[in-house]
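Before relying on records like the one below, remember that each one covers exactly one chain. Contacts with other chains, cofactors or solvent are not represented anywhere in the record.
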Amino acid sequence: MQTYAIVELEEGTLNVIVGGRDGATTRVQRSLRIPCADLGYETVSTVLRSIGSDVWEGAGGVHVVLGERRMQHFQSTLPKMTAPEVVAFVTREGMRLSAVQTQAEALVATRLVRRLPGKKLVMGTTALARSVWEPIRRAFESNNIKVAGLYSMETCLAMAAKSPDGDPVAIIECNAGRARFVLCEAESPVQVRRFLIGGGGEGNAAAMTTQLAMELPRTLDWLREIGQALPKALVLGARVNVEDESMEMLRGDDLQTIVRGEMPAVVADGQATPSLGVAALIARLGSGKVLPSLLEVPRLHFSLGASRVVALAATVAAGLACSLSAIVDGKAWITVQDVVEETRAETQRLQAAVAADESVPVGNTQQRPEDVRLQTALTMRRPISLLLAQVSNAAEGGLHLEELKFASTDRIVVTGIVEGSSRQQALAALTVFSKRLRDLPYLRADGQDEIGEVAGQRNRFRFRLGMAWRNS
């Protein structure tokens, strides 16, 4: 059995999962959960050093699944384009969302999700600033651990959210006291929202149910606001501890079905439960299906277009016709051999041209004049004074702001505490405040909000609201 080692890494927890394909069954042999306070070099290096070398035994390298709020996911619908043009477009969009200025500063992975009528292409892309990955990379390197691939948690979770009819489907999975809501289409993440799980986290079924009952309606409202189609089904992850009788309560009026995700791997007795995303990644690696890694140069492999198929068929037909004619005319046998060789050479030339056109690395793209204009626009001046005034005015009694973080091209983060005479009053005050922020014309919500109950105080909530500058 080919063994694969996966490190699922997020602020708060580092999970090590080792497994592989045993015939038709994917098996998880070892699964460890280790506290990891942050994603800094020293912390990650120390945690990796505490893991015995025997854990990685049999694996050719470690596949890293990173849970990071700065990871960007988006889908792009493009008209008919060549492979270099598609790669250039998604790379520029990944650079813009990651707030970096050059291609060398961005890690990008993309794949073809589906084709639409009119030869349109739907591409699913993940992007991350290289500066986020660099300290983690150095931590693995200092421990002599080879990294074979880098993926986002959301991308792996999308592989476990299958929809037979092709409709959008959502999946929720928990890790390190946080929950991820991932909206997926064709096993590709479209929108992501993260929120905290208070009251004991994954082990407390009542707290988990209460938190989901509050956050699911807010998440669906957010999807409506941004014009996103709502999912018809919700898949609960392997670490989402919700009782069966509570699932119908969570369904509400918007979701048609809520189901528990089917674990695609058999976990050995006594081992920690891996997430659905990691289990799906092991199953995919074991079956030989390649998932685009953020550490690789993006390459696109499109199937041959109809025009190229016709051209190749015409070339072969011409060769066969010449061969048949030469056979009939025995005196031209030598000429037939020459024609066959020419036909073979022409076929090889066409195949080489197709390969060169359909598999193009991102490094071959060149910066165009519109890229320069885009970078200039991203560095435009922002209405900072107006932002400070309107955020302050939006906060009413019972809501205390602790920090307002912003930059010219980075996201805006507002943190604070809200309290009320009851839980409902506190949540209502927070809802009013967040709506006022979303209504500001120069900002747009990015869905990366975190809300959690203050320990021991049921009427106080700590919040972290994320937004981004609106550039159009």
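The CA atoms of residues 370 and 465 lie 32 Å apart.
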